[in-house]
Amino acid sequence: MRVGIVGAGISGLAAARDLQQRGAKVVVFEKSRGPGGRCSTRRSNGFVWDTGATSIAPRGKAIERLMLNELPTDELIPVEKPIYLHRNLIPEAGDPSRTVPRYTYRNGMNTLPKLLADGIDMRPEVEIERISRAGEGYRIGGMHFDAIILTAPIPQTAALLWTLDESRPIASARYRSNLCIALGYDTPLPETPYFAILDPTQVHPMTWMSIESVKAPERAPAVVVQMSRQYSFDHYADSPNELIVDISRYVEALFGATYRVPAAADVMKWKYAQPDTTADFETVNPPGSRLIIAGDGVSAGRLEEAFDSGLRASQLLC
Length: 318
Hints:
Layout: E1 2-6, H1 10-21, E2 25-30, E3 41-44, E4 47-50, H2 62-70, E5 76-78, E6 83-87, E7 90-93, E8 103-105, H3 111-117, E9 121-124, E10 132-134, E11 137-140, E12 143-145, E13 147-150, H4 154-163, E14 174-184, E15 196-198, E16 206-211, H5 212-215, E17 222-227, H6 229-235, H7 240-255, E18 264-277, H8 281-284, E19 291-293, H9 303-317
Helix pairs in contact: 1-9
């Protein structure tokens, strides 16, 4: 069986790896330069920033066994400090009973998709804009496949379904945009009892801040700030410089005037950052279908859930 997979995020890679282990011939098409999707790492001037998923809490799911027992672990490190909550930038400890083991990779979270992609036939910088039927199979990227798995965000998947004149009940999946600002400093950051802070109300403009040099102590002093849904919507068109200046003031408010101006910075704009609501995997993928929809739009926004959806997609075809 030949299977074409659109999207080399965690879901697409999970499906590809599982199918290949079951004997299928798999090709993964990815419009970006490399695998990972929103499991993304940016690097500049010696700084390492995880600008998508900042860590992974496997919660006993399938990806935990894979990370700990099957993939190389030389770069895998536990995140030692917890997540705190913040209310108007005043950090406070959360409920310790809700703390779960978290992991990151020393040189960036995109180590995980690189490991998953090892040995997979991946076609980077290929954007699939159309799918056509070919007998009992499909044709994408100039190649014939017996089955297809679509793992892109639901709005992009819907556009591909339209080229087939096919519809699925996916309208319930809705996404939020996110502005992510990475800041690096030439002086060590203050000692904190947390590696990240989170606004549980999602009202403050700064929803999340992770300290990359606490999460992975070998990294240079740096933070990654993710903005709220409303802030991201209101400021999505702002220039990178405007965003860096504006958002640096939140770090200054937390840590002091020393951190008013970063030594390096980067901006990531995620149009489809995370689903607020999802479609139901089983409803979207009727029995016997050879075109499967997977990814966070039919699971949840966490990496471990996206991984599981890729495995479910694989199992439907085997």
